[in-house]
Design brief:
Elements (H helix, E strand, L loop, with lengths): L1 H25 L5 H26 L1 H4 L8 H12 L4 H16 L4 H8 L4 H32 L13 H25 L7 H26 L7 H24 L4 H11 L11 H11 L4 H6 L12 H14 L1 H12 L9 H10 L5 H17 L27
């Protein structure tokens, strides 16, 4: 359930990030920082999801062949993380290195004012911006401290419902990030770009807050689908936990030690109380992913599912749906075994015949279970070949060992 829950929660997060980022591109915007965030984090999260998928599929994912629909994607991950800007470069230099000035309400304007050929006019503009900058920084500092001491209870949020607290937490951490950025630029100056790990961690804070915002926007845009709420909880909690963790790691490793201590004392005076998604949440997501319906369809609407009976993805999906459909019949069979009407162990065809003879199952129900189990058996096969690899023998006839405990 842990791996399945993580796959579901992070997939929702990826889709939310993709949707918001591409929407800005469709609007003819040029969001350089946002696309860098999306490129780095989406490819890294994809790597995590693929690793979890390999764990779930076990040996099936290792043996390359027609039945393995994961191997090619796994082999493509190194390409995704290095092409169009290596991830390590994107994280260490681009996201915060460029975002610190481009996303700040005053720094870029101050730089432009300082470079104004009209020195007198530039000085006036710079002084005005500087005082606004100081006021902005002070407001963020006291706002972040107050929110930290009160658990964001009094932070204003224009949303209601089960996600309201997330808007408050995002506001709190956004203020903390703004204060951290001001302190970093003030104390490190041009050295900030060369302190790549500090820049990377501050960039992570920015990135996770962006992705958390994207998740909440997706939830609102799609009409607050209640079936998606656990996925929203997982994705946002994952982002908030990692955003706070990144900021605290930046403070712990800040080159000017007392500045790191001051930042931690101001912005996290009671420590970091943001938690990872709970086990209960992971289990609920795993159960939702194993239940056919509109919620699962929303999550997988862009997934390719082939129609051919030999398509490995389509076969797995058909087997899943068929096995889910016979769950009530399996429960009848289990009850009959408990009552002594059907053997507890043995080959499935023999036990089904016993259930048919005892009147536990009808002939149509027996056929339905048999068809579903045949699909299941075919779907879980691991690719295998002749000794010289000249022949695929995955579907070669063999003695059936159909599930004896069904």
């Amino acid at each position: 359930a842990e791996a399945m829950g993580r796959i579901g929660g992070l997939t929702y997060l990826l889709e939310a990030t993709r949707t918001l980022t591409t929407t800005s591109l469709d609007m003819k915007e040029k969001p350089g920082i946002v696309t860098a965030i999306a490129k780095y984090h989406m490819t890294e999260i994809a790597r995590t999801i693929l690793n979890d998928s390999f764990d779930i599929h076990a040996g099936r994912a290792i043996q390359d062949g027609p039945m393995n629909y994961l191997a090619k994607h796994y082999l493509g991950i190194p390409v995704a993380i290095t092409v169009e800007g290596a991830n390590i470069l994107t994280r260490n230099l681009m996201i915060f290195g460029q975002g610190a000035t481009r996303c700040h309400p005053y720094v870029l304007k101050e730089m432009e004012a300082a470079a104004n050929p009209d020195s007198e006019q530039g000085a006036k503009e710079f002084d005005s911006l500087l005082f606004k900058h100081i006021g902005h920084a002070m407001g963020n500092t006291f706002g972040a401290l107050g929110a930290a001491l009160t658990g964001s209870r009094f932070v204003k949020a224009n949303m209601s419902g089960p996600t309201q607290r997330y808007y408050k937490d995002i506001t709190r951490l956004s203020r903390a990030l703004a204060v951290s950025a001001d302190f970093a630029m003030l104390t490190l100056g041009g050295d900030l770009k060369r302190k790549e790990m500090i820049s990377a961690r501050l960039g992570d804070g920015l990135s996770y807050l962006y992705m958390a915002s994207a998740t909440l926007k997706k939830y609102e845009d799609e009409g607050r689908q209640q079936g998606d709420l656990n996925f929203v909880h997982y994705a946002v909690q994952y982002c908030l936990y990692n955003a706070a963790k990144s900021l605290n790691e930046a403070y712990a490793n800040f080159p000017v030690k007392y500045v790191g201590g001051v930042l931690k004392g101001l912005l996290f005076p009671l420590g970091n109380h943001f938690d990872k998604p709970s086990d209960e949440l992971s289990v609920s997501i795993a159960e939702a992913m194993m239940t056919p319906g509109v919620q699962r369809d929303r999550l997988t609407h862009l997934c390719y599912i082939g129609k051919s009976e030999n398509d490995s993805v389509g076969l797995m999906e058909n087997a899943f749906l068929a096995m889910y459909d016979v769950k009530p019949l399996e429960r009848k069979l289990m009850k009959a075994a408990k009552d002594g009407k059907v053997a507890r162990k043995g080959l499935l065809p023999d036990r089904l015949q016993q259930a048919l003879d005892a009147g536990v199952l009808t002939e149509q129900e027996v056929e339905k279970i048999t068809a579903a189990d045949q699909l299941r058996y075919k779907a879980i096969q691991v690719d295998h070949f002749s000794h010289d690899f000249s022949e695929v023998r995955t579907d070669s006839p063999k003695k059936s060992h159909l599930n004896p405990a069904a």
